[in-house]
Design goal:
The protein is an alpha/beta fold. The chain has 2 domains: 2-126, Response regulator (Rossmann fold, 3-Layer(aba) Sandwich), CATH 3.40.50; 132-233, OB fold (Dihydrolipoamide Acetyltransferase, E2P) (Beta Barrel), CATH 2.40.50.1020. Helices cover 29% and strands 31% of the residues. The protein has helices at residues 12-26, 41-47, 66-75, 110-126, 173-180, 222-233, and strands at residues 2-8, 32-38, 54-58, 82-86, 102-105, 132-135, 140-143, 148-154, 157-162, 165-169, 185-189, 192-195, 199-202, 206-209, 214-216. Strands 2-1-3-4-5 form a 5-stranded parallel beta sheet, with helices on both faces. A 5-stranded antiparallel beta sheet has the order 10-9-8-12-11, sandwiched between helices. Helix 2 packs parallel to helix 3 (66-75). The protein is elongated, with a radius of gyration of 20 Å.
Amino acid sequence: MVRKIAVCDDSSLMLRQIAGYLDQLQGELPCDICPAYYSSGEEVLTGLAPDTDLLLLDIAMDGINGVDCARELRRRGMNLPIVFITSMAEYALDGYAVHAFGYLLKPVTYADFASIIKEALAPAEAEPPKKLLIKTEDGLRTVDPAELIYAEVYQHKTSFILKSGRVEGNLQLAVVEPLLLPLGFFRCHKSYLIAFNEVSFIGRDSLTMTNGSVIPLSKHRRKAFLSEYGSFMGVRF
């Protein structure tokens, strides 16, 4: 499993230190770390991946400070754990309003860093994926995301193609997408949402799934797909 950790600090020295800590921590975790680095709150608000697992956020920055940045992320519905980095303990009180997971006081030691990162990632590792509740013509059906190969929209109805068959329902992709993205799914086309684990072949403009289905890959989403798929699989293209 790949865990995405974003780090934002307007000090290049601090970013290098955190990068070194993450490299060291990699050997102590059962998952692969995929880091992303930002030097301002503005960069976070425009570039943070929606499936980021953890955000380390400096509080005292020029422009948008860390607390205001976190407040905007919460307003957008992003509930990822946020660990504030600050040189002044009293700033930590500001984090209660945005439900901060915790704080790292500068100068940040590796022991404190490793402890809070492991703690922040542990609940997500242990939490079982939620099942989808789909309204069909016959009633309500629960679907385990692990059984889902892909979902497609056709004529305003959504089909969920499972390893065991097909379920037709009215649960829109716009509702399903944010639930499934953290579990290794991707919107490869406006009408299709696929599971990375079920891709058997990547073509120029299509994906072949493990059940033999050929799914269109939008040219506008191909670059993002390759990047996300590579991160999920732990490889680079």
